Predict the 3D structure of the following.
Amino acid sequence: MTNSQRSGTVPCPPINVLWVLVLPLVTCGIYTGIWHLKRAKELNALPEGEQVGLLPIYYLIVSAVVTLPTTFITVPKYVEHLLVIETFVYVLVMVWVAFGIRRKLQALGAETSVGFTFLFNLAHLQWVINRHHYRSAIAEAA
């Protein structure tokens, strides 16, 4: 039985949290959706807890890709106003998805913080995944 099939272990591979902080900046937010999509698919493969919805994650990716050109070109004022609303919705969806992943991690026995999940989002969740992964590896070795 592999680690990802055993109850209570997180199938997500550990990733350096620094990468999780830098890549969204370099990719203009596209990596945020990709990170959520990869983690949600890995966690949804487990029976514990409720499933993390993938539709909002697809919204994060499409939204980042569609709005990316507007950071490099001048757009009319009404488009700027729409982008402000879209950015607000993007942040709300991102936090909603992060809390879905947080609930799934809690079902696996990982300890997560509401405040850190809200403030640091995927960096905190990746840190929790890394910590849970290493604790599981140490427990198995003992």
About this structure: The chain has a mean pLDDT of 85. The two ends are 17 Å apart (CA to CA). The chain has five helices and no strands. The CA atoms of residues 63 and 86 lie 8 Å apart.
